[in-house]
Specification:
By secondary structure, the chain is α+β, with helices and mostly antiparallel strands. The chain folds into three domains: 21-286, 3-Layer(aba) Sandwich (Rossmann fold), CATH 3.40.50.150; 326-440, no CATH class; 450-609, no CATH class. It is built from 23 helices and 28 strands. It has a nine-stranded mixed beta sheet with strand order 3-2-1-4-5-7-6-8-9. It has a four-stranded antiparallel beta sheet with strand order 12-27-23-25. Helix 6 runs parallel beside helix 7 (182-189), helix 14 (402-412) packs across helix 15 (414-421) and helix 21 runs antiparallel to helix 22. The two termini are 25 Å apart. Mean pLDDT is 91; it is low at 1-12. Bound molecules: S-adenosylmethionine. S-adenosylmethionine is lined by residues 14-19, 51-54, 56-57, 72-75, 95-97, 110-111, 113.
Length: 612
């Protein structure tokens, strides 16, 4: 969220949004539950507010008898008011990121500025040049408040406490998305003691759609580090019952008072996360909203997914790859009425504004292409293709010489190549910009080959064309919150907004019918929610978190009967026969039974923790 302050005050972008008083009051009171390591009284604790704004945290700190307070603010327009209102505070009207690392604190509290690096590259560039700390912890895609956490950690005394209110997106980010240095730094130096999920509430006027959280870190002592001490994480979720429709401050104040009392009711869920500090991974999403009751069920499900003593996840069984990445969809995908004409057996394509009939052998190189919107559970919408893609397979030519290869294709497919040659400059420019070979402009950029283990030692390059054409395939949308997995065993070519699941090994053990039943089931829907699995371009969460059952683990006669019934019903769904809803309900029941989990219990827990 870019918070602009383009303004009379002289700063363009400094993430200036002030905290409502009831939140500051709450946060100051809340830290007192965590100040246990000291025998000192509040007056002796050194407190830091690193980005003080108009000083709302100072007011509460002083009211709560904190006396030794330092505050940073770089907006000098706030100076006079701050000095006048808080004469007892030591102010530094400088950039906090340039502050002295030797200055240490017992408590750091505040609402640091949010500013995404993507849209404010110049601000970050400037900071990395000026401040060593910013240079050290810079990562593309980061947010300005990450620096405040990094520097906060460095400025905490061992045992000291940091509490910030921030957006909550960073918690569920994994590597490559800006948290590369932040999460390892937190885990190495601190315990995450409390996480308050405020995503149902709108707290900051002018920042709608922002999901916020409050969290508490405590810096580890050397002994705790040496002994790899573990700590639980307390989770507090404000439910939808806990929000007032018009964001009434009085109502919110009452809710936060209840949180302080440790209440657990319809408005507030207060529980210990099944994830402890030692479970948190430095390069992965942190799924903290994970009650122990839910974990018990998931442990049961995962028992059926054990292969050679280890739970197998999607990444262990499948390679997940995008569909075909054409150099440019608009050029490679031909559309009827625009640049393609089909008349009975004959196909024409537009070259230099004239429709030219193509050869029979060329027709085979035109493939119906689907986008991810065509995917539906167990299948796809057949008539929904987006056009016909020109798909050449480099494997057709044996040899390494690119010029000879291109000549081979030109002679074999003269009209299609002639068509592509119209766009030679444009296509080659795209390849040059992507640092790829410009002479490859007849071919898709990626997606037609994968490396796969044929057995334990041998890795081979697999040509996907026969699989797109005739093989069994499972596929899903590249952006989706739901577990919708399509299936086809006939020709299905898709663009890069579709992910395909290709078996990691040439294993016969993948029973496709059972697999799509499982993937589209209510049980997997439950796993998606409980493990916070979302497919948002990045597929990492799905690959690492979705357990995949091993059919051989179900050995009893009863289980085998259930499996064969599941498969029979699933085949009906693949062939689109029978009442879909009814069949799905039956499959879901059988799958819950097979995994020995009680559907009623799951629904109850689900409504309690996630539908709130
Ligand atoms: C999100 S506001 C919060 C202000 C205050 N803590 C509150 O909760 O109301 C962040 C404040 O940080 C200040 N700020 C931004 N970058 C800063 C920096 N690098 N050093 C010190 N203050 C900064 C902004 O001027 C703004 O007043």
């Amino acid at each position: 969220m870019v918070l602009k302050n383009n303004n009379k005050r002289g700063y363009n972008l400094i993430g200036q949004i002030f905290t409502p008083e009831y939140i500051a009051k709450f946060m100051v009171k809340n830290i007192s539950n965590f100040i246990t390591t000291y025998n000192k009284s509040y007056q002796d604790l050194k407190v830091l507010e690193p980005s003080v704004g108009e000083g709302i945290f100072l007011k509460s700190l002083i009211q709560n008898n904190f006396l030794d307070i330092t505050a940073y603010e770089m907006d000098k327009n706030l100076k006079n008011t701050l000095l006048k209102n808080y004469p007892q505070v030591r102010f530094v009207f400088e950039n906090f990121l340039g502050s002295d690392l030797n200055e240490k604190f017992d408590i750091i509290i505040g609402n640091p500025p949010y500013l995404g690096q993507n849209y404010n590259a110049d601000v970050f560039q400037n900071y990395t040049k000026k401040f060593p700390i910013c240079k050290k912890y810079f990562v593309g895609n980061m947010d300005l408040f990450y620096y405040f956490i990094h520097l906060g950690i460095l400025k905490l005394k061992p045992g000291g406490i940091l509490s910030f209110i921030t957006t909550n997106y960073w918690l569920t980010k994994s590597k490559k998305t800006g948290i590369k240095l932040l999460k390892p730094h937190i885990l190495e130096e601190c315990f995450l003691l409390q996480y308050i999920d405020l995503s149902n509430m709108t707290l900051f006027k002018g920042a709608e759609g922002q999901h916020n959280c409050i969290f508490i870190l405590r810096k580890k002592t050397d002994l705790e580090k040496q002994r790899s001490v573990n700590k639980p994480i307390q989770v507090i979720q404000i439910t939808k019952n806990g929000i007032s429709s018009n964001n009434n401050e009085m109502f919110n104040t009452l809710i936060f008072k209840e949180v302080l009392l440790g209440n657990d009711n319809r408005s507030i869920r207060n529980y210990r996360s099944a994830i402890t500090n030692n479970d948190l991974k430095p390069d992965r999403s942190w799924n903290l909203l994970y009650p122990e009751e839910i974990k018990e069920i998931i442990d049961d499900i995962e028992k059926s997914c054990i292969v050679n003593g280890k739970i197998s996840y999607l990444k262990d069984r499948f390679i997940v790859r995008n569909g075909i990445i054409f150099i440019k969809d608009n050029i490679f995908i031909l559309n009827e009425g625009k640049n393609l004409k089909i008349e009975k057996q004959d196909v024409y394509i537009k070259i230099n504004n004239i429709f030219v009939k193509i050869l029979n052998i060329e027709k085979e190189r035109l493939k119906k292409i689907y986008k991810s919107k065509s995917i539906k559970p167990y299948s796809y919408k057949e008539g929904d293709h987006t056009g016909y893609g020109i798909y050449f397979n480099k494997n057709e030519f044996n040899g390494a010489n690119i010029e000879e290869r291109n000549r081979f294709f030109e002679e074999k497919y003269p009209n299609l190549i002639q068509y592509l040659k119209q766009y030679k400059t444009e296509l080659q420019n795209i390849l040059v910009n992507a640092k790829e070979n410009p002479n490859d402009y007849f071919f898709p950029r990626r997606g037609t080959f994968i490396r796969r283990n044929e057995n334990d030692s041998n890795e081979t390059l697999i040509d996907l064309e026969p699989f797109y054409e005739k093989g069994r395939k499972i596929f899903f949308k590249y952006i989706s919150n739901e577990n919708i997995f399509g299936y086809s065993n006939s020709s299905y070519f898709a663009t890069s907004d579709t992910y395909f699941l290709w078996p990691r090994f040439n294993q016969k053990s993948i029973d496709y019918t059972f697999m799509i039943a499982y993937l589209n089931s209510n049980l997997v829907r439950f796993l998606f929610n409980a493990k916070n699995i979302r497919i948002k371009r990045s597929k990492t969460k799905l690959e690492y978190d979705l357990p995949i059952p091993f059919i051989e683990n179900f050995t009893s006669e009863k289980d085998c009967k259930k499996i064969s019934l599941i498969k029979k019903l699933t085949k009906q769904l693949v062939q689109s026969s029978g009442n879909r809803k009814e069949i799905q309900v039956r499959i879901d029941k059988l799958i819950f039974d097979l995994f020995k989990v009680k559907e009623k219990e799951i629904n109850l827990l689900f409504n309690f923790f996630y539908n709130c």
